[in-house]
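Training component of the fellowship. As part of building independent skills, the fellow (R.M.) carried out the full modelling exercise for a liganded target. The chosen ligand was thiamine diphosphate. The inputs are recorded below so that the supervisory panel can assess the work.
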Amino acid sequence: MAQNEFWQGNKAIAMGAIAAGCRFFGGYPITPSTEIMEVMSEELPKLGGKFVQMEDEIGGIASALGASIAGKKAMTASSGPGISLKQELLGYGYIAEIPLVVADVQRGGPSTGLPTKVSQADVMQARWGTHGDHATIAYAPCSIPECYTLTIEAFNMAERFRQPVLIMADEVIGHMREKITIPEPGSFKVVDRKKPTVAPDDFIPYRPDEDDVPPMPAFGDGYRWHVTGLTTNEWGFPTNDAPDIDLKANRIIRKVERFRDEIVAYREDFMEDAEIVVVSYGSVSRSSLRAIRELREEGVKVGHFRPITIWPFPDKEIAAFSKNVKHIIVPELNAGQLVHEVERAVKGNCEVHGKSLINGELYKPAEIMSFIKEVA
Amino acid sequence: MPREDVKKLLRSKFMPHIWCPGCGHGIIMHAILRALADLQIPKEQICISSGIGCSSRMPGYIDACTLHTAHGRSLAFATGVKMANPELTIVNVMGDGDGTAIGGNHFIHACRRNIGITAVVMNNNIYGMTGGQASPTTPEGAFAATAPYGAIDPVFDVCKLAEGAGATFVARATVANPMQCEQILKKAIEHQKKGFAVVEIVTYCHTQFGRKNKRSRPTDNIKYLKEHTVLKAQADKMSPDELKDKIVVGEFVNIETAREYTDRYNDVIARAQGKA
Ligand SMILES: Cc1ncc(C[n+]2csc(CCOP(=O)(O)OP(=O)(O)O)c2C)c(N)n1
Ligand code: SF4
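Fellow's submitted model of the complex:
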């Protein structure tokens, strides 16, 4: 029997994580993400999982990485300043190839900024916040049901590609309450990391399979291996050898880029005959859709494209429709972060209009309507 | 030469090691390996974790489940490892800078939680790897790359810090007495069932600290350590003035009745599941 609930976004993220098999959470309180850890502290022990409130955000991500290395699906969550603190260890997760899910419930910044106000200003932090090169996978849910399903998807991708994956919610989505029909267990896919099939003495820890992803045992599984944030060769041994560095540095990017088409997710509405397209994500997409519905009734040919993965960015898909439209409008709750990616994808095929709102408020549908009318 | 059972714990593939010839860190690794071999813990069940620094390169050379993390963060990683798999025996090694400066917060909270990890602070009074900058354990008046006029920052007493923060086993030894290191490490590793154990092993960095402080040869340092070591029993009878410059070695805390964190978390699980 499908069960209906009236949940907050943060609760849906936590419950989605549990449905995906998450059994460890390490975190530190920060508005507007805190409810995720509160729910985890209550729910995880019911299933024999573990929760630990660490001394800071760095400890939160560090403990989650440690738990993942010891074989548990693990998660941490934070907002603004806390995500900034986690950046070094996000990088660790990418290079050491540790599955992990990080929920970022975005608030206004920089610094302590606007703790209780909405923003989408971590788009570039998610992509480039840590030093060094890596591939990023990040989901932007726009509803409570999506908080649940995309968190499951984030775990699946983290396990499959052995790396951190982000849920980029925002304050409005995190704190909003909405009806959710809980998917039955078994009705969705749950991916577990690949384990080695060779005997422990034949195990080469970072030798990838054909898919560029090496199998991963857990500490305590009978395999002995070395995990480090240094660039290593296949043996996990630190290297300064240019060919070895090349292999590792490129593989951790390639393993995701190769499967980009399987990862990229987006949604299109009213796009068939659209001459104007609004590209928006997260909470903003709700205002956009409302505006578009109303304008469609007035006969304005406007459509909506919503990136669900903001990383990898759906550039090919945007490039494809950009040839058939006159204007693309990108309203976002930052000073213009994703609009650069849109411009990059569009390559001058049509006009791109970035719209930014950074006063802690959400766009009202009327405001988006007026952006559309300006160009219509 | 190491014993056969000790040699088996080495990862010769990762050799040669990066340590300067004669560095005290090797003596500590050998003592840890002897302690682990004596305790007969299967390699697959041993986790050696570390942060960043010369000392923190140790896990690479040990044939077990090894984890070289970020500067200062090893105890937070190890906390997650232990929570995920309480059966593992975890020896977390770190330098004085790694453990008490950048990792100070994780250190005091691991003590407070009393989680079953054995933390070894390899105290050489300096940041070795980055070229001899002052650390929170650089003695007042000593010279360092960032204390060209002599350090004025008061030093941390690692053992008192651990005791104050709630560690249930705390001890100190020096590399001048490797047998004592081994004995203390064995007790500290066994204490893991009861909680967090801290062993400060006073060592030296002859190339960085030594060069600037008239102790540039390994032998100068061993001699210095021998001359300045005082057993706890003796120290108890000495005045603060007499104890200036002295390194007090021995066991400071050993709470036999302590309860370990993951064990206590099982109570949470039982309560959450309505079984308690
Ligand atoms: C976040 C961060 N800050 C600084 C460094 C640079 N760093 C590398 S090793 C080290 C000092 C290590 O000193 P210590 O922990 O005392 O160990 P030792 O080398 O003396 O054994 C520092 C500061 C780093 N790697 N990461
Ligand atoms: S620099 Fe100092 S601490 Fe590092 S290996 Fe050399 S002697 Fe040891």
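The panel noted the following from the submitted structure. Chain A has 13 helices and 16 strands. The longest strand of chain A covers residues 100-108.
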